[in-house]
Amino acid sequence: MKTIKLLLPVVALLLITSCVSVRVVSDYDKEANFTSYKTFAFYKTGIDLVEISDLDKKRILRAIEKEMLAKGFVKSDNPDLLVNIQTKANKRININNNAYFGYGWGFRPWFWGGGNQFNSVSTSTEGVLYIDLIDTKQKELIWQGRGAGSLNVNRSMEKKDARVQEFVAEIMKEYPPKKDTK
Question: Is residue 147, in this structure, part of any structural domain at all?
Fold first, then answer.
């Protein structure tokens, strides 16, 4: 019974942290008139500099295009906005030293029961995706969304597509920004 009481908070914590899938922040130019932007195109020069596979670039760009079209934008050769992306990957190594020293066992609980010690090492990769929207007339960044979350590089193609779509959708929820009413 004591074990169940001890494990319950740990399981609850794992469930809560697993629900936080993509952490998103955004920033924008307060002077920009976001209602005036109707068309977009991808900033090929900037996107070509991103150091990820071409297949992952295509996944990201398809997801962004889907979100922009859903927001009413039209893809154009003479756009109001240029869309650029940037990516980062941070590898994390987690080392846990788990030591347990307990009381005796069996019918003589007052004797020393020995102990157990083990180490566990795990690695994880956190990916960060930046989506930049650039005003083509002013040639200035007007909005930037950033999403960060864990990546599993051994996923199937369908899972990669779904994860990229999730990242982009969560970031693009922040656009257009809700202006402060203060």
Answer: yes
Residue 114 maps to a domain? no
CB 50 within 8 A of CB 86: yes
Rounded Cα gap, residues 37 and 79, in angstroms: 9
Torsion sign, CA atoms 28, 29, 32, 33:
positive
The pTM (predicted TM-score) of the whole model is 0.74
pLDDT tens sequence for the chain (182 residues): 555 444 444 444 444 444 458 999 999 999 999 999 999 999 999 999 999 999 999 999 999 999 999 999 999 999 999 999 999 988 878 888 776 665 555 555 555 555 667 788 888 788 999 999 999 999 999 999 999 998 776 778 898 899 999 999 999 999 999 876 44
DSSP 8-state assignment for residue 20: -
Counting the structural domains of the chain, the total is 1
Q: Write out the residue range of the structural domain in which residue 83 sits.
A: 22-93+128-156
- Domain containing residue 86: CATH number: 3.30.160.670
Taking the C-alpha atoms of residue 163 and residue 155, their distance in angstroms, rounded to an integer, is: 10
- How are beta strands 74-75 and 39-42 bridged, if at all? parallel
